[in-house]
Amino acid sequence: MVQLWNGEEVQWHLTLRPEGKAGSLEMGDRPRQLLVRLGETFSAEDLRRAAAKAVKQVTALDGASALLDAAPAVEKLGAEGLAALIQGAELALYRQETWKEKKSGQSFRLYLDGAEGVDAAAVLAETAVLDRWICYARDLANRPANMLTPAMLARCVADTAAEMGVECQVLDENDTRALGMDAFHAVGDSSANPPRLIVLRWRGGEPEQAPIALVGKGVCFDSGGYNLKQRLSGGMKGDMAGGAAVCGAILALAENRVPVNVVAVIPAVENRISPSSFLPGDVIGSMSGKTIEVGNTDAEGRLILADAITYAIEKENACKVVDIATLTGSIARMLGGVAAGVMANNDAFFAQLQAASERSGEKYWRMPDYPEYRQLIESPVADLANSSEGCGAIAGGLFLAAFAGDTPWMHLDIAGTGDSGKMSQPYQPKGATGMGVSTLYQLCKG
After folding, report:
1. DSSP state for residue 319 in the 8-state scheme
2. Torsion of Cα atoms, 362 then 44 then 97 then 326, to 10°
3. Which of 31, 95, 212, 244 is deepest in the core (most CB within 10 A)?
4. What is the DSSP letter of 52?
5. What is the model's pLDDT at position 25?
6. Per-residue pLDDT averaged across 44-68, rounded?
7. Which of 223-237, 319-333, 368-382, 404-418 has the lowest mean pLDDT?
8. What pTM value is reported for the model?
9. Number of alpha helices (DSSP H) and beta strands (DSSP E) in the chain
10. β-pairing, 292-293 with 283-284?
């Protein structure tokens, strides 16, 4: 937790100094000082990275506390710069949940000075809430599959939502079967752990205002089904990072009392191999009435998202829909761990995402949806095919677009960015990154 400076002795100073600008804080007892040079011009994202690098360096040297001089950030970028500075420091201090023998850990205190000129307390409060729910999403995505079955995920989310004043409804397998969610069940019925559809509702806006729907892929474990994955993958347990992201975003909106109506829909399943598993070549139905030819059982995420998108539009009366998923290896190979792919059917809605990403620091790249690509999801025996011979990320997005219809919709493919790697940022420690939480929060906040 970052605190405003209160006069207590600290072990370190962290001074962010624009290139060529002299001056630093003066304090008694000559505490050690770490300088981070930013260059003559810097962005909010530069501040995020700089704060993360600095705090990680101090902790590596066994520092117990640090005082962060925010003056350059505030002078240059105001409240946005201060928020970025706080976020980089807090997210860099995240540590994965473990099940090792418990040992007492050293606490780390981070103080803030030089934030005059903005409402620092308000910026601290909002940013701390958002960071806490980003870390919550990381915790969910990092959790082993045996500790996060669909039912366990539903209970965890329901308990947390109740604390935040967020309405939670959990539909069991009988409820979803009655709704005709055949695509959802084609995947979910492959496991002895039955599927759950988790629905969270934050009603912060006007009663008559239609909600924005955030739909997150919740595959708690993904073996690939009968199209078995070719190698061991850490992503098998983290294939619900999209579901974790929408949980984090709506809970942050609720705790910060953002005046907007938002519904989060998380189709939670396991994709396993069993006598009841769906098979390559199967033709299955969906809640929308469209039929789907299964070309690949490892393209299961789009199946459960298809029914979840239909549910959000038909049952929750969503005015806009954003789905987010670790959907394709294709996008990870194309964009690496730097940016997520986007498919959108509405230019104005995509422009809102671009504005939100400027505030969050997360990067998104829009993929083309030329008519020629539609043949990728054509099937001779069904309305749609769930896999293609190429352009996998585009095909996945176009498949989901068919279920959004005319509703303004975006698809965020966070495979590659949902888990840290060589291209990750300093504030993204090993494991799940919490990708999407901040951008979805900013998008809904507007």
Report:
1. S
2. 0
3. 244
4. H
5. 40
6. 90
7. 223-237
8. 0.94
9. 12, 17
10. antiparallel
User: Taking Cα atoms as reference points, which of 84, 78, 25 lies closest to residue 50?
Assistant: 84
Kindly write down the DSSP assignment for every residue of 270-289, as one continuous string: EE--STT---TT-EE--TTS
Instruction: Write the DSSP symbol of residue 368.
Output: P
Residue with tokens 């176009």: 398
What residues act catalytically? 229, 302
pLDDT at residue 27, rounded to an integer? 44
Alpha-carbon separation of residue 391 from 142, 305, 308, 376, 398 (angstroms)? 29, 19, 24, 8, 11
Cα dihedral: 243, 246, 252, 258 (round 10): -160
CA pair distance 82, 88, nearest whole angstrom: 10
| Burial zone of 136 (CB within 10 Å; 0-12 exposed, 13-18 middle, 19+ buried) | buried
180 band by pLDDT with thresholds 50, 70 and 90: very high
CA dihedral 301→304→309→312, nearest 10 degrees, is -130
**176 touches 185 (CB < 8 A):** yes
Which of 53-57, 106-110, 154-158 shows the lowest mean pLDDT across its residues? 106-110
Question: pLDDT digits over 339-359, tens only?
Answer: 999 999 999 999 999 999 999
Q: Give residue 382's identity as a one-letter amino acid code.
A: A
**Is the CB of residue 86 less than 8 Å from the CB of residue 123?**
yes
**Spatial distance between the Cα atoms of 181 and 322, rounded to a whole number of angstroms:** 19
Q: Which of 27, 129, 131 is nearest to 88 (CA)?
A: 131
- 422 Cβ partners below 8 Å, 6+ apart? 337
